[in-house]
Amino acid sequence: QVQLVESGGGLVQTGGSLRLSCAASGRSFVGVAMAWFRQAPGLERESVATINWGSSNPRYADSVKGRFTITRDNAKNTVYLQMNSLKPEDTGVYYCAARPSPVGAYTLWGQGTQVTVSS
pLDDT digit string (tens) for 83-93? Predict the structure, then answer.
């Protein structure tokens, strides 16, 4: 059974940091692009950061550039999201996702982890 399991969410004050982890299992993730999405209450899910298998050319939403860093450890089938200088608008449920096909949609999803940034 393919699983993506997120961890590391929590409550933090404005300006603080959190590191999210996503452990993948159940299939090979060789060549698979990974991403972090988030969904705030009342809003649509949005892409936060993406990273390909070789960790080249990570991409970020404009709202998190310079504050968030996505990395992956392929030996551990784990992807991380380091979040610094957090703002209240970063609050939401953060989801890990995988895209098994070279192009197209992210079709594998974790259950999400809550991040709350207090002002």
Answer: 999 999 999 99
